Amino acid sequence: MTDRPGIVITGASGRMGQMLIKTVLASDKCRLVGVLERTGHDWIGQDIGTATGGQPVGVAVTDDAVEVFAKAQAVIDFTAPAATVGFAGLAAQARAVHVIGTTGLSDDDLKAINAAARHAVIVRAGNMSLGVNLLVQLTKKVAAALDEDFDIEIIEAHHNQKVDAPSGTALMLGEAAAEGRGVDLKDVSDSGRDGITGARKRGDIGFSAIRGGDIVGEHDVLFAAAGERIVLRHLATDRAIFARGALKAALWGQDKAPGEYDMMDVLGI
Ligand SMILES: NC(=O)C1=CN([C@@H]2O[C@H](COP(=O)(O)OP(=O)(O)OC[C@H]3O[C@@H](n4cnc5c(N)ncnc54)[C@H](O)[C@@H]3O)[C@@H](O)[C@H]2O)C=CC1
Ligand SMILES: O=C(O)C1=N[C@H](C(=O)O)C[C@H](O)C1
After folding, report:
1. Which of 98, 140, 158, 248 is labelled catalytic?
2. Which domains are assigned to the chain?
3. Could you say which residues bind NADP(+) here (predicted)?
4. CA-to-CA distance for 241 and 55, rounded, in angstroms?
5. Do 21 and 32 meet the contact criterion of CB atoms below 8 Å apart?
6. What is the pLDDT of residues 129-173, one digit of tens each?
7. Whose CA is nearest to atom 5 of ligand 1?
């Protein structure tokens, strides 16, 4: 039984942290060997089962990443950019697969993550669900088939606690649309319109973000031309879809060579 990979979950009390812990505990393909929270959090030292209102599971919440990563074959990390960059170095030192779901990463953060991937397997994606990763492929195909008579707009909606915009998923979709069109997203991205913006520039890829209530995550890719519109849509109604994808990535990464991978690699699509 001990050959099942040991998994550490970071951000144990977060929306995704709690869903990931549930998913790992319910799986017969892995073991939960540690859960991490930020220093000063009320749950530090408590059993994660009792902290979440259930029976003890024999895993105490810790704030010591070095100690807990040493027990891990994989670290699944949905936290915040500064935390994730630190964890990338520490997971690489422990030679643990690092599955990164955290979004809002800067170019410098991405460089640091890429450097850590020289020593260990990192799987990173702004969205770990099967549906969104298929939508990314569809977006690339549709964008390649249409010319700039079709304006591309990406509209996303999330809960009122989300701190980054556009969402990681919206950026994945934007990158896919830009790739399909053979352009660099940095040159055509248009987000945060406000005031007298002027007419829409032909060829731009626009982003709009809605924040409200408990929306789990909704993404539309709109191709709008004179006289017709195509809308590609993904609606997430349960965070379990992200947790399932992340666990799949953690298991997939066990026999891979060091490097940075994404969910397309994991799903083989
Ligand atoms: N790639 C994907 O499929 C998905 C990505 N996300 C992303 O995951 C991230 C987290 O989302 P939520 O769970 O909704 O946020 P949340 O705010 O509910 O949870 C984040 C948790 O990380 C903890 N944390 C922050 N710094 C830490 C540190 N240094 N050490 C240990 N723990 C630390 C916080 O205390 C908190 O418990 C966001 O960036 C979000 O966009 C969310 C859902 C799906
Ligand atoms: O913060 C969230 O909740 C989500 N974040 C990811 C993103 O930024 O796209 C994935 C999902 O949409 C939920």
Report:
1. 158
2. 6-128+239-267 (3.40.50.720), 130-236 (3.30.360.10)
3. 38
4. 25
5. yes
6. 999 999 999 999 999 999 999 999 999 999 999 999 999 999 999
7. 101
